[in-house]
Amino acid sequence: MKIALGSDLHLEFGDIDVTNTLEAEVLILSGDIMVANELQHYNPKAIEGFSSRKSIMYMNFLERCSSNYKDVIYIMGTMSITMVTLVSLLIFYVKQRKRLLIFIS
Known about the structure:
The protein is an alpha/beta fold. It has one domain. It is about 30% helix and about 20% strand. The model has no long low-confidence stretch (mean pLDDT about 75).
């Protein structure tokens, strides 16, 4: 089994395109990947402008990751997280029919 690792990507400063050049089955995202609390502002049905720009970028990033890897493991870093954010992430991955493991350090 091949595992890819992305660490401390800090997407709050700009988007990153994660490609699966190793043909890995699992992607581990660890550390400060994004300001996860921004995800609670994401609403795919909202009129453009009502979701925060960062939440849209973060969800697009997660969609790309989930389409390129069988499983994604997200180990959150020191940035704060709320229960709403956790629920938002879980709902997103259930809809994508992907498995997501979330660890909070």
